[in-house]
Write a structure and sequence with these properties.
Layout: E1 12-15, E2 18-23, E3 28-31, H1 34-49, E4 57-65, E5 68-77, E6 83-89, H2 98-111, E7 115-119, E8 124-130, E9 135-138, H3 145-152
Parallel strand pairs: 6-7
Antiparallel strand pairs: 1-2, 2-3, 4-5, 5-6, 7-8, 8-9
């Protein structure tokens, strides 16, 4: 399915009766679901186009919130290893609603990242959190990693 992201060379193969894709961050093949298709394209976009360091990125990061284990889709750290960006993915046919933002905000109550991104592969949102003024603002585009680091210092 075509996405509103640059083409990228994904390593897709058949494993039994299902398709799997190589995740460059997890360094293994994972089931190719519509959400995973979006994740892999978005991760490549962040690395190749927005110069995000792959070494500071992780997929399916476990966290515990109110005693419940959860997983955030992608976590990007700053150079000191602190959470900088959380990304939440949905399949292309899933509309990005307030519920999706509520989900990523719940994760951020634990992680306290400065930026939240949401994408269904067609529409992408990036939100900057201002903890000092207890507010947030949506950015017009996904910034490069270097811009995120500059604005966070």
């Amino acid at each position: 399915m075509p996405l509103n992201l640059p083409e990228c060379p994904l390593n897709v193969k058949k494993n039994g009766n299902r398709l799997v894709v190589f995740d460059c961050l997890r360094k293994r093949f994972v089931a190719l679901t519509p959400e995973e298709w979006v994740r892999q394209h978005f991760v490549h976009y962040l690395i190749e186009t927005k110069q995000f360091p792959a070494a500071l990125m992780a997929n399916e990061v476990s966290l515990t919130q109110n005693g419940i284990k959860r997983r955030c889709d992608t976590l990007v750290a700053d150079r000191q290893g602190h959470p900088l960006v959380i990304v939440e993915y949905k399949a292309p046919e899933i509309e990005i609603t307030q519920q999706v933002f509520d989900q990523i905000v719940r994760y951020n109550m634990v992680l306290r990242a400065r930026y939240l991104m949401v994408s269904n592969g067609m529409t992408h949102y990036c939100c900057q959190i201002d903890y000092v003024n207890n507010s947030y603002s949506f950015l017009n585009e996904i910034p490069c990693y270097s811009q995120l680091i500059e604005e966070s210092t």
